[in-house]
Amino acid sequence: MISRRQLKKRLINSISFPLLKKKIERSTKSRIVHIKNGGIGPGGANNYMFEIIEYLVEYEQFVWYEKGRTYGFRNDVRAYSGNLEEFLRIVQPKIVQIHYGGGGKDCLYKVRDMSKQLGYKVIFTFHKLSEPFLLDGIDCNLFVNDFYTKLPQYCHLSNIGVISGGVNERTYQYEKKPPESPFTVGRISRVDDEKVDSILSEILKTFSKRKDVGFYFIGGTKRKIQQLLIPRIPESMMHRTKIDRRVVKTLDKIDKMKRLDVFIHFTSKDCNAGMGENFSLALIEAMMIGIPIVTENKGGIRNQIRHGYNGFLCDSQYDYYKYTIRLLDNQDIWKEISLNARNHAEKYFSSSIMAQKTRKLYEGLLNVTG
What was the pLDDT predicted at 12? Predict the structure, then answer.
């Protein structure tokens, strides 16, 4: 019995795949296929994929979604779903780049196995720390920083590359002004077991005597906010804490983030088994706008934040209070950190820098293909 969803997918493919064939026949550019598995939310994996498509116009690029939806939060990008084997045989790509953010594994094995038949190169992008199930027999395992490449399960590999995630410096413009009382501290983040922990309650408690500091948390579904976030906000702080649900549109996100005077960030013990964040795109977004960062001193975050230069790294709950107040009570320090945050993000974590590195990777693989 075919489900309604499967029937709809077959109908769409019966129209889109023949049209795709005609497009391929007229094509002269080298073709890249991006595969996004395990969901299509506007996180680091999608951001990287869409920015690469926008910047590297010299390639003809296609997107295939495992989940069956043919677009994400970027409706201008043409994407396909359905039979992966048929899709790859039609497109005949030179490179297939898998943007892995979690989810199913079947399509990953198919991509690896079909590369032997069709002769394309495979790039496997780790947007979060994952079990090493597709590390051998492919051309490049691409990490977002070098922190986890040093772990025992990865450090012996020769087919490793590092390209940090990037934020579009033209969209995220430097707009922050020095804060004035009452101050707003907060963050934008998904709400789940990795990003919300009892540490939130402890951090908020340290601010109880500072009546001029309020909190603003952006992100999460209504259910997750009710279930995980609100119970961790001390009752004494509830009246000066505002919560907004998940924001999808980029300009809306920027508008909300601009209200923050300091961006705080932390993860729970569930995040990569206590090692912390692999790479936080939200921190780069905040830095691009010019918001000083106060964050945890662990994981890949230490590759993003230089303590005392573009933000502060915390070893205890009290450190979050200490460094936040230092920023809010001294405008000279705030201005310096704010400007450094933008400069650092633009120099190392901009979309243009990310695209340059990806172009170099593509060129190297295509030259090998010869």
Answer: 60
pLDDT at 273: 79
15 lies in which domain range? 4-166+350-369
User: Is 294 found in the same domain as 249?
Assistant: yes
pLDDT along the chain (370 residues), means of 10: 61 71 80 77 76 92 72 62 88 91 69 91 80 73 84 82 92 91 95 87 94 96 94 93 91 95 93 85 96 94 96 96 97 97 96 96 82
CATH number (domain holding residue 280): 3.40.50.2000
Domain count, the chain: 2
Cα 347 to Cα 52, 166, 341, distances in angstroms: 17, 10, 10
Please state, in angstroms and rounded to a whole number, the distance separating the CA atoms of residues 119 and 92: 9
In this prediction, residue 70 carries a pLDDT of 44
Domain annotation covers residue 175: no
DSSP 350: B
Cβ(64)–Cβ(84) below 8 Å? yes
Classify the C-alpha dihedral 271-272-274-280 as positive or negative: negative
Between helices 106-118 and 84-91, what is the axis angle to 10°? 30
Residues 50 and 73 in one domain: yes
Q: Round to whole Å and give the CA distance between 251 and 107.
A: 33
For residues 155 and 197, membership in a common domain is answered with: no
Domain identity same for 203 and 187: yes
pLDDT the model gives residue 151:
80
61, 79 contact by CB (below 8 A): no
DSSP, residue by residue, 51-117: HHHHH-TTSEEEEEETTS-S--S-TTS-EE-S-HHHHHHHH--SEEEEEESSS--HHHHHHHHHHHH
On whether both 260 and 133 belong to a single domain, the answer is no
pLDDT at position 126: 78
Q: What pTM did the predictor assign?
A: 0.89
How long is the chain?
370
